[in-house]
Design brief:
binds zinc ion, 5-stranded mixed beta sheet, GTP Cyclohydrolase I, domain 2, alpha+beta, 215 residues, 47% helix
Amino acid sequence: MDEKIKIDKSKEYIENEISAQEFEDRFNSSVTMEKLIRDLLVELGENPKRQGLLRTPQRVAKAYKFLTKGYSDNIDELVNDAIFNESYNEIVIVKDIEFYSLCEHHLLPFYGKCHVGYIPNKKIIGLSKIPRIVEMFARRLQVQERLTTQIGEILEKVLQPQGVAVVTEARHLCMMMRGVEKQNSTASASCMTGVFKSNDKTRSEFLRLINSRLT
Ligand SMILES: [Zn+2]
């Protein structure tokens, strides 16, 4: 067992080019998580030693780390130097941003689309950064309402725009696979600030644009 861990350790260390300390931390947390998953399998009545489950604890630990990687994202690093001075003052929209998140109540996925709009106030953000911001908050344990609000708040903070509008539409596996078992229902949440909140016409314009199709 010890021998095997040593081999895996050095391999991961070299492959990822991370610092020794960071490696040590990650390694310890992987071991803890793998043990928890193994215990969970036993609690579920499974035999963690059968062939199909042998490497499951490692796979699950790796998957959960990926699905929650948003915790280690930093907004300053993410936005970096993609904020530009610009006098454009019409609505900017990025719609149909796919996201996958985990509901914090059941650790089951919820997934869907996010539509983001803002009206600049002398500052614009590189468009590709908006999906990255959505990703940063989706890859955490979430509730859809908070995910939506956090995306709006961070854009408000980095751009100080005339207003921000965020709408998310999602399907929740915790509703679809268990509980009410409503397979086709979608939940929506929205966050409006500034002119999108105070001006009905601006808000309607945003909602019209996210519902329109190009063709
Ligand atoms: Zn849930």
